């Protein structure tokens, strides 16, 4: 089975269940950190890449509330929701909020490992996407104010002549700015520049 770098974060208030999951995952050579509450996780999470196994029904801050807090704090982890028999509606809501899968308790051990491997693969993709976004943001930050104005109008589909009229500069000057924008953004084509703009 393919390996992915990343930690499995278990957030569940049931000590025995949490310990058994940790033992199972560690026996498959997966790094694990477990937390007995949402508050415990939020206090100790250091921004590491990985995925989360999240119990929906917990005291104080339940799984759905933790999802919302993670969104607000820009903590991006693929989440597999764990739900008891009565918690299916909550699990469905969690899926709508971005969880990638859910497991109904009790479940077979063999079911868990492939789900976690899939979540870690997703974490790899999310990490790569984030690095790409940060790179685009750095390139964008290198543009002058005028170059940003030109870029915004270029990606909105306006021709050089229209941009010149809107900004009160000559079409030739627009061409110069446009060329600089493409160079600084390292964009090979207009579609690539549009795609970069969407990541900002």
UniProtKB/TrEMBL annotation:
SMART domains attached to this UniProt entry: HTH_LUXR, REC
The keyword Kinase appears for this protein: no
Biological source species: Amphritea atlantica
Cited InterPro entries: CheY-like_superfamily, Sig_transdc_resp-reg_C-effctor, Sig_transdc_resp-reg_receiver, Tscrpt_reg_LuxR_C, WH-like_DNA-bd_sf
HTH luxR-type domain sequence ranges: 136-200
GO molecular function, one term: DNA binding
Lineage: Bacteria, Pseudomonadati, Pseudomonadota, Gammaproteobacteria, Oceanospirillales
ATP-binding recorded as keyword: no
Entry protein name: Two component transcriptional regulator, LuxR family
Keywords: DNA-binding, Phosphoprotein, Transcription, Transcription regulation, Two-component regulatory system
Occurrences of domain Response regulatory (ranges): 7-120
